[in-house]
Every structure is written in structure tokens, then in C-alpha cells.
Amino acid sequence: PNDPLVTKIRSDPEILVSIQEFSQLLQGKGVDISRGQMPSMLQMAKLASDKEINAKITNINTLLNRAGITLDSQTIQK
Length: 78
Known about the structure:
By secondary structure, the protein is mainly α. It has helices at 4-10, 13-28, 41-48, 51-66, 73-77.
């Protein structure tokens, strides 16, 4: 899609690598989002308390903020 947000993310290699690492981390934790399937409630609860997951999410948010990308509920709904 020609969404400006997606274009901005795709143009930043550091963000792309971090998102890819996050996806691999999730797979290592038993959650495969590549098939478009959402994790179960139990998996979500486990992920929410996982320090490694939280550190990677914090890193991605830092990179997004540095690139001027804000992911809030309004932005995501678009």
C-alpha cells in the first residue's frame, strides 16, 4: 500500500531489522504471526510479562519515535 506510515517504516532499515528480530523472538516463544494468526489470551499474558519481549518492544518504539513515527490507536486504525 501507499500508506505514508508504511512507507516511512519501510524506508528505515534499522526499524525493519528490529521488527524482523521481534518476529523471530515471538516465533522462539511459540507465537508465529507470519500466518496472520493472533496469539491466544494465554500466550498474550505470557508475552506481556516476558522481559525480552518488553525490551524489544521498547527498542522498536524508540526507533519509531526517533523516525517521527507515532503509533497510537488512531494511527493504527487507519
